[in-house]
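Supplementary Methods, section 5.1.

A reviewer requested that the exact input to the structure prediction be made available. We therefore reproduce it here, unchanged from the version used in the analyses.
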Amino acid sequence: MDMEKGRFKKLFPHLAEEMESQENRVSIRSVRSEPETKEKAVASTFEGYDPDIIDFLRRCDNDQQALEVINYMERRGEITKNYATKLKTQLKEKGIRSFGTKKSEDYYLRIAEKER
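The structure derived from this sequence is encoded token-by-token as follows.
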């Protein structure tokens, strides 16, 4: 629904003020198009934790590496063709970091140490 800025301000003055104020902003660091891939709770020992494709994509340095991971997981039957297509579209349109910040090699060790 398109609405002119002036009309929006008239109808929703407080909301318009809040949106323009630069306060209470929340940054979105990742986008997930499938509910099955939502963030899993991090267990202190990671016992039984099974990384999904998003975990693997977050370790990639660039879009080309991510594309290779997607294609590999699709070939192995780990993800469906439909899901692979959605991931490739997101990668092309929004880039590798749209899946989340880069996970370093010691990511899980650092998280586990923080919980101790």
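DSSP finds six helices and no strands in the chain. These observations are discussed further in the main text.
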